[in-house]
Design a protein that fits this description.
single chain; 196 residues; alpha/beta; Glutaredoxin; 2 domains; 7-stranded mixed β-sheet
């Protein structure tokens, strides 16, 4: 079999080099999109500035909490929606999973109903001390929660990293796995970290 001419070898080498560089650029863009999230209405609010709510045990949670090393997942919900209740049931299982426990802190916040309603739902779904109500602060006035349920992921510094509007079975679990990968790359503050 005849050998390829030197000019043909150079052409093949250049094509392979172009493909390699293109792949590297594509991978970089893909990683940036993972870190940035899909950016819907809540994600346009770049940070919490301030978000606080009461838990059913009477304590108040204030975000951001820079002393925490965990991402904070806040699920806004209402008892009037079966989709919300389905999400709460799925999320309650995920919130207590050993895989998520060291990385994510979950809160289930009802923006519209009384503590009695929230306590009743929390007891029936096993939400325990993660159920909250009466959210206040700049985040609530600036964020447009267009749909309930809405799930928002915050870094420990209050940066909105991702959000999900509505509910589809399995979507939250899929996102949680993505958030864990992001946490492992970016750390609790949501910024890239490089270990050499």
């Amino acid at each position: 079999m005849p050998e390829a001419s030197p000019s043909r070898q150079g052409l093949v080498r250049n094509i392979l080099l172009i493909l390699l560089v293109g792949s590297a650029i594509g991978l970089g863009i893909w990683q940036y999109q993972i870190i940035r999230g899909n950016g819907a209405s809540v994600a346009e609010t770049s940070s919490t500035d301030e978000l606080s709510f009461k838990l059913t045990d009477g304590t108040t949670v204030a975000l951001p909490d820079e002393n925490s090393q965990k991402y904070v997942v806040v699920i806004f919900w209402t008892s009037q929606s079966q989709r919300c209740l389905s999400l709460l049931a799925d999320a309650a299982k995920l919130a207590t999973s050993p895989e998520t426990d060291s990385i994510l802190q979950f809160y289930f916040v009802n923006p519209n109903e009384t503590s009695d309603v929230v306590q009743e739902i929390a007891d029936s779904l096993g939400l325990g001390e993660m159920a909250g109500y009466d959210p206040v602060g700049k985040f609530m006035s600036q964020a447009s929660l267009r749909a309930l349920p809405s799930t928002v992921l915050f870094s420990n510094t209050g940066k909105v990293l991702d959000n999900i509007e509505g509910y589809e079975k399995g979507q939250l679990e899929q996102r949680i796995h993505r958030w864990i990968r992001i946490y492992n790359v970016a750390g609790s503050g949501g910024h890239f970290k490089f270990d050499f």
